[in-house]
């Protein structure tokens, strides 16, 4: 085996590096820029080139960075390391390790299908596949992207016609930019929460097309918000920051919205099923396409997925990770929030929040 599981995360002793470590280490190979995968305080980071602006935005200034293009490889202690698109968010990558003919792949967080804000996941044949299972239950089956996009824009259009401001919640980096890319700017103006705007600017610097947005905090005095769309972080809901918008309709974009009662618990008007993780059928498809000898399942409903794969003739086991909990969800990147009244919620990682 090339990889072993440790208290600090997946470790490659041959190369002396950790993959997505749970604590500061000397050398970290990271799958993407969300803070539960790219921990602050490591000495050296190796990541996919498209994630550069996001990583530099939130890491300590004295950290050392090294970036590889997708498909480019580097040898570390005789282990060939390369990054391949994961489809989770901008710069997200599967990490492929090869040593003496053996190939092991860590998916990080990933999803199948197209996303205008990042490169699509691609299958990698391997001996060992480490897969997440955040939504690893049969109940989680995502609708086609076009249907969800149309529903969001129709909701916005209806709110505009009723003289309301629309507010949709998505995590600051990744989810929010995916939402922005799907919005029909012809319906009305688009505004952003401070944490969302900072992440969006990093996407723009990376060459990802984003619609024109106005940072909410840049508007002084009275302003007519009717007909507009505000993309905000979930922690803004119910705070004084929301009062400025007048009559509003709120929505949550999350994979958890597939479960009855999730919208009610969130106290929002609408719930849209938008996830940057694989659903049940996509997870099974990914395993089939990669066709590994062994599957390590982590992050979520790992026991359910491992049991099912074993019943289907696969060799699968739960990867016990001391560094992450079982109720993990789509992560918020740790970017500072310009609106101080909701700053704590905008910068906390909180994978247990939908």
Automatic annotation (TrEMBL):
**Region spans: Disordered:** 319-354
Kindly indicate whether the keyword ATP-binding belongs to this entry: no
Gene3D superfamilies membership: Ribonuclease Z/Hydroxyacylglutathione hydrolase-like
Q: Does the keyword Ligase apply?
A: yes
Q: Which residues form a coiled coil?
A: none
Please provide the record's keywords in A-Z order. Ligase
For this protein, the parts annotated as crossing the membrane are none
Record GO terms (molecular function): ligase activity; RNA endonuclease activity
This protein is called DNA ligase-associated DEXH box helicase
Species this protein is from: Rhodopirellula bahusiensis
């Amino acid at each position: 085996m090339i990889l072993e599981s440790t208290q600090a995360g997946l470790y490659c002793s041959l190369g002396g590096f950790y993959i997505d470590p749970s604590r500061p280490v000397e050398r970290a190979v990271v799958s993407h820029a969300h803070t539960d995968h790219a921990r602050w305080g490591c000495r050296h980071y190796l990541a996919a080139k498209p994630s550069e602006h996001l990583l530099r935005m939130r890491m300590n200034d004295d950290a050392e960075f090294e970036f590889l293009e997708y498909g480019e490889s580097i040898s570390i202690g005789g282990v060939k390391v390369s990054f391949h698109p994961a489809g989770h968010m901008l710069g997200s990558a599967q990490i492929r390790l090869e040593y003496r003919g053996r190939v092991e792949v860590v998916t990080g967080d990933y999803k199948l299908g197209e996303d205008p804000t990042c490169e699509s996941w691609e299958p990698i044949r391997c001996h060992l596949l480490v897969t997440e299972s955040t939504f690893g239950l049969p109940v989680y089956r995502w609708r086609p992207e076009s249907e969800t996009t149309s529903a969001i824009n129709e909701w916005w259009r209806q709110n505009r016609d009723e003289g309301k401001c629309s507010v949709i919640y998505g995590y600051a980096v990744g989810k929010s930019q995916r939402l922005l890319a799907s919005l029909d700017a012809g319906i009305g103006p688009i505004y952003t929460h401070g944490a969302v705007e900072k992440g969006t600017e990093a996407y723009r610097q990376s060459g990802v097309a984003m619609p024109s947005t106005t940072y909410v905090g840049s508007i002084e005095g009275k302003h007519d918000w009717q007909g507009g769309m505000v993309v905000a972080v979930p922690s803004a809901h119910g705070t004084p920051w929301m009062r400025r918008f007048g009559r509003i309709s709120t929505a949550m974009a999350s994979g958890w919205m597939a479960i009855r009662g999730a919208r009610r618990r969130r106290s929002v008007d609408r719930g849209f099923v938008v996830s940057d993780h694989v659903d049940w059928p996509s997870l099974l498809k990914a395993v089939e396409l990669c066709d590994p000898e062994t599957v390590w399942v982590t992050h979520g409903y790992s026991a359910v997925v491992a049991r099912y794969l074993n019943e289907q003739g696969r060799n699968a086991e739960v990867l016990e990770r001391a560094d992450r909990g079982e109720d993990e969800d789509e992560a918020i990147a740790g970017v500072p929030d310009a609106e101080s009244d909701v700053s704590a919620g905008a910068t906390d990682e909180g994978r247990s929040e939908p």
